[in-house]
Design brief:
Elements: H1 2-9, E1 16-18, E2 20-21, H2 24-32, E3 38-40, H3 42-48, H4 59-69, E4 76-79, H5 88-100, E5 105-109, E6 111-112, E7 115-116, H6 119-132, E8 137-141, H7 152-165, E9 170-172, H8 179-188, E10 193-196, H9 203-209, E11 213-215, H10 219-236, H11 248-252
Parallel strand pairs: 1-11, 2-3, 3-4, 4-5, 5-8, 8-9, 9-10, 10-11
Antiparallel strand pairs: 6-7
Length: 264
């Protein structure tokens, strides 16, 4: 039921707005705020644990967080970087573990440091996940724009088609902006296209271009860090404590399932 519910959100009248959490409290707060689904940010999860992002170092933290937030009453999708290390069978084991915990989807990327994984390698990972966990929404991310590779659009078009053919339920092209690239990617992808939120482009405009899912990525985690440091410095400098913060009691209630939410 979770898989169908999450997949349907990619085919609604408006794009799915997907905020990305880094711990239980942030995920619970976003679910309680009314977002239809919640994702995780690998940067936020890694940084909160004092570990590097995109270096396959946070498998344990990712699984632990996923198990907790899968009970929040909204579909949850988990960023597993490039698969958290290991061959396709090991990545498929991770996907099956997450699916068994009630997770609706995963995001898996083809960026490897300063370059891209071989297309065949990533196709094998996606195929292994879908074979082992067919009811898990696989969002296949490709990073040519992110990494500023030559012919980024042509590379992305080739890869989104290959990943969809391998069984991906959606494709994610972070860094893709502008009307022409987005139209080309929507036309090339036989599955829903996901992009990062773009402050200068209204959601309605992205919807008109055919974008199905808009992720916040690490934006909220980075905003929270800035807000924490800014508040600390302002109060240290004699400014009054902000009066519109969540109360102690409100934060204490975040471990509960949001009121009225149905099990995922």
């Amino acid at each position: 039921m979770t898989f169908e519910r999450f997949r349907a959100l990619h085919h609604g009248p408006r794009p799915l707005l997907l905020p990305n959490a880094w711990d239980h409290a942030s995920a619970a707060a976003l679910a309680a705020a009314g977002f239809a689904a919640v994702g995780t940010t690998s940067l936020g999860v890694a940084a909160a644990a004092g570990l590097p992002d995109a270096e396959q170092a946070t498998r344990a933290q990712t699984v632990s967080l996923a198990r907790g937030i899968a009970t929040l009453g909204v579909p949850v999708t988990v960023d597993i970087e490039g698969g958290c290390g290991g061959p396709p069978a090991r990545v498929a084991d991770l996907a099956a573990e997450l699916a068994a915990a009630g997770v609706a989807g995963v995001n898996i990327e083809d960026g490897r440091g300063q370059g891209l994984a071989e297309t065949a390698e990533q196709v094998a990972l996606i195929g292994a996940i879908k074979q082992r966990a067919p009811r898990l929404f696989v969002n296949a991310r490709t990073d040519p724009f992110w990494l500023r590779t030559p012919d980024a659009l042509a590379t992305a078009v080739h890869r989104v088609r290959a990943y969809a053919d391998a069984g991906a339920d959606g494709v994610f092209v972070p860094g893709a902006t502008g009307q022409r690239p987005l139209q080309a990617l929507v036309a090339a992808a036989p599955v829903p296209l996901n992009v990062l939120i773009q402050a200068e482009v209204p959601v309605a405009r992205l919807a008109a271009l055919g974008v199905a899912r808009i992720s916040y990525g690490s934006l909220l985690f980075r905003a929270a860090l800035r807000a924490a440091v800014t508040t600390a410095l302002q109060v240290a400098g004699g400014a009054p404590v902000p009066g519109d913060l969540p109360s102690y009691e409100q934060v204490q209630r975040l471990w509960l399932r949001p009121a009225g939410a149905e099990p995922a």
